[in-house]
Amino acid sequence: MVTLAYLYAHLGRDMDAQVEGTARALLQKLCEAKGFIREDAELALRHMVANVSPSRSLTALTNTGVRSRCTAVRKSTAELLGRLVEAVGSSRLLSVRREVTDRFIHAVSCLALDSALEVRTNARKCLTLMVSHPDLIKMVERYAPEGDLVAMKDIINKCQSRSKR
Questions:
Q1: How far apart are CA 55 and CA 7, in angstroms?
Q2: What is the pTM of this model?
Q3: Which residues contact 17 (CB under 8 A, 6 or more apart)?
Q4: C-alpha–C-alpha distance, residues 120 and 95, integer Å
Q5: Burial class of residue 153 in the structure, from the number of CB atoms within 10 Å of its CB (0-12 exposed, 13-18 middle, 19+ buried)
Q6: What is the per-residue pLDDT across 96-136, written as a single tens digit (0 to 9) for each?
Q7: Distance between CA atoms of 59 and 145, rounded to whole angstroms?
Protein backbone atom coordinates (compact mmCIF):
# COMPACT_ATOMS: atom_id res chain seq x y z
CA MET A 1 0.00 0.00 0.00
CA VAL A 2 2.90 2.32 0.67
CA THR A 3 4.15 1.40 -2.79
CA LEU A 4 0.83 2.48 -4.29
CA ALA A 5 1.07 5.77 -2.42
CA TYR A 6 4.56 6.23 -3.82
CA LEU A 7 3.41 5.37 -7.34
CA TYR A 8 0.49 7.81 -7.14
CA ALA A 9 2.73 10.54 -5.78
CA HIS A 10 5.46 10.15 -8.38
CA LEU A 11 3.69 8.91 -11.51
CA GLY A 12 0.62 11.11 -11.12
CA ARG A 13 -1.67 10.97 -14.15
CA ASP A 14 0.26 8.03 -15.60
CA MET A 15 -1.57 5.97 -12.96
CA ASP A 16 -5.01 6.90 -14.37
CA ALA A 17 -5.47 3.51 -16.00
CA GLN A 18 -4.96 1.69 -12.70
CA VAL A 19 -7.12 3.92 -10.51
CA GLU A 20 -10.31 1.87 -10.56
CA GLY A 21 -8.73 -1.43 -9.53
CA THR A 22 -6.32 -0.04 -6.97
CA ALA A 23 -8.94 2.21 -5.36
CA ARG A 24 -11.31 -0.76 -4.99
CA ALA A 25 -8.58 -2.80 -3.31
CA LEU A 26 -7.54 0.06 -1.02
CA LEU A 27 -11.13 0.78 0.03
CA GLN A 28 -11.64 -2.91 0.83
CA LYS A 29 -8.53 -2.81 3.00
CA LEU A 30 -10.07 0.05 4.98
CA CYS A 31 -12.93 -2.24 5.88
CA GLU A 32 -10.85 -5.31 6.68
CA ALA A 33 -7.97 -3.82 8.60
CA LYS A 34 -7.22 -1.65 11.59
CA GLY A 35 -4.23 0.36 12.69
CA PHE A 36 -1.26 0.88 10.44
CA ILE A 37 -2.74 -0.98 7.46
CA ARG A 38 -5.76 1.33 7.46
CA GLU A 39 -3.46 4.37 7.76
CA ASP A 40 -1.39 3.18 4.79
CA ALA A 41 -4.52 2.59 2.71
CA GLU A 42 -5.81 6.09 3.56
CA LEU A 43 -2.41 7.56 2.66
CA ALA A 44 -2.46 5.85 -0.73
CA LEU A 45 -6.03 7.05 -1.38
CA ARG A 46 -5.09 10.63 -0.45
CA HIS A 47 -2.19 10.50 -2.91
CA MET A 48 -4.56 9.09 -5.53
CA VAL A 49 -6.98 12.00 -5.12
CA ALA A 50 -4.17 14.55 -5.17
CA ASN A 51 -2.30 13.23 -8.21
CA VAL A 52 -4.56 11.49 -10.73
CA SER A 53 -7.20 13.15 -12.87
CA PRO A 54 -10.21 14.30 -10.81
CA SER A 55 -12.77 12.50 -12.95
CA ARG A 56 -10.93 9.18 -12.59
CA SER A 57 -10.58 9.48 -8.83
CA LEU A 58 -14.23 10.55 -8.52
CA THR A 59 -15.36 7.55 -10.55
CA ALA A 60 -13.22 5.17 -8.52
CA LEU A 61 -14.45 6.52 -5.20
CA THR A 62 -18.13 6.61 -6.11
CA ASN A 63 -18.20 3.17 -7.72
CA THR A 64 -16.86 1.44 -4.62
CA GLY A 65 -17.11 3.74 -1.63
CA VAL A 66 -20.56 5.30 -1.57
CA ARG A 67 -22.62 2.10 -1.38
CA SER A 68 -20.25 0.11 0.81
CA ARG A 69 -21.69 -1.53 3.90
CA CYS A 70 -18.58 -0.63 5.88
CA THR A 71 -18.73 2.68 7.73
CA ALA A 72 -14.96 3.20 7.50
CA VAL A 73 -15.11 3.01 3.70
CA ARG A 74 -17.98 5.50 3.46
CA LYS A 75 -16.27 7.83 5.95
CA SER A 76 -13.04 7.77 3.97
CA THR A 77 -14.94 8.27 0.71
CA ALA A 78 -16.67 11.36 2.09
CA GLU A 79 -13.36 12.72 3.37
CA LEU A 80 -11.64 12.08 0.04
CA LEU A 81 -14.47 13.77 -1.87
CA GLY A 82 -13.88 16.80 0.35
CA ARG A 83 -10.19 16.72 -0.53
CA LEU A 84 -11.16 16.54 -4.19
CA VAL A 85 -13.30 19.67 -3.81
CA GLU A 86 -10.40 21.44 -2.08
CA ALA A 87 -7.95 20.43 -4.80
CA VAL A 88 -10.11 21.13 -7.84
CA GLY A 89 -12.51 23.78 -6.57
CA SER A 90 -16.28 23.65 -6.52
CA SER A 91 -16.73 25.77 -9.64
CA ARG A 92 -14.57 23.51 -11.76
CA LEU A 93 -16.04 20.33 -10.31
CA LEU A 94 -19.61 21.43 -10.93
CA SER A 95 -19.00 22.86 -14.39
CA VAL A 96 -17.36 19.85 -16.05
CA ARG A 97 -19.16 17.13 -17.97
CA ARG A 98 -22.72 16.33 -16.94
CA GLU A 99 -21.97 12.75 -15.84
CA VAL A 100 -19.16 13.88 -13.52
CA THR A 101 -21.41 16.47 -11.88
CA ASP A 102 -24.25 13.97 -11.64
CA ARG A 103 -22.01 11.34 -10.03
CA PHE A 104 -20.51 13.82 -7.58
CA ILE A 105 -23.80 15.40 -6.42
CA HIS A 106 -25.44 11.99 -6.09
CA ALA A 107 -22.52 10.66 -4.01
CA VAL A 108 -22.34 13.66 -1.69
CA SER A 109 -26.11 13.65 -1.16
CA CYS A 110 -26.10 9.96 -0.26
CA LEU A 111 -23.19 10.43 2.13
CA ALA A 112 -24.64 13.59 3.71
CA LEU A 113 -27.74 11.63 4.72
CA ASP A 114 -25.89 8.50 5.86
CA SER A 115 -26.79 6.76 9.10
CA ALA A 116 -23.24 7.05 10.52
CA LEU A 117 -22.35 10.37 12.14
CA GLU A 118 -18.73 10.49 10.95
CA VAL A 119 -19.82 9.90 7.34
CA ARG A 120 -22.44 12.67 7.53
CA THR A 121 -19.94 15.04 9.14
CA ASN A 122 -17.34 14.56 6.39
CA ALA A 123 -19.94 14.85 3.63
CA ARG A 124 -21.30 18.05 5.13
CA LYS A 125 -17.78 19.48 5.30
CA CYS A 126 -17.59 18.77 1.59
CA LEU A 127 -20.87 20.62 1.07
CA THR A 128 -19.59 23.54 3.14
CA LEU A 129 -16.68 23.86 0.72
CA MET A 130 -19.13 23.96 -2.19
CA VAL A 131 -21.60 26.48 -0.74
CA SER A 132 -19.91 29.38 -2.49
CA HIS A 133 -20.96 28.03 -5.89
CA PRO A 134 -23.99 30.02 -7.06
CA ASP A 135 -25.70 27.09 -8.81
CA LEU A 136 -25.29 24.48 -6.07
CA ILE A 137 -28.97 24.27 -5.18
CA LYS A 138 -29.93 24.03 -8.86
CA MET A 139 -27.44 21.21 -9.31
CA VAL A 140 -28.78 19.40 -6.27
CA GLU A 141 -32.33 19.76 -7.57
CA ARG A 142 -31.25 18.31 -10.88
CA TYR A 143 -28.95 15.45 -9.78
CA ALA A 144 -29.78 14.43 -6.20
CA PRO A 145 -32.19 11.54 -5.59
CA GLU A 146 -35.77 12.82 -5.37
CA GLY A 147 -36.39 11.38 -1.92
CA ASP A 148 -33.38 13.24 -0.52
CA LEU A 149 -34.09 16.60 -2.11
CA VAL A 150 -35.78 18.36 0.82
CA ALA A 151 -33.21 17.15 3.33
CA MET A 152 -30.35 18.17 1.03
CA LYS A 153 -31.74 21.68 0.61
CA ASP A 154 -31.98 22.00 4.40
CA ILE A 155 -28.39 20.85 4.80
CA ILE A 156 -27.17 23.31 2.17
CA ASN A 157 -29.09 26.17 3.77
CA LYS A 158 -27.51 25.33 7.15
CA CYS A 159 -24.06 25.23 5.55
CA GLN A 160 -24.70 28.59 3.90
CA SER A 161 -25.79 30.18 7.17
CA ARG A 162 -22.71 28.80 8.94
CA SER A 163 -20.36 30.07 6.26
CA LYS A 164 -21.84 33.60 6.49
CA ARG A 165 -20.98 33.81 10.18
A1: 19
A2: 0.90
A3: none
A4: 24
A5: middle
A6: 788 888 889 999 999 999 999 999 999 999 988 888 888 88
A7: 18
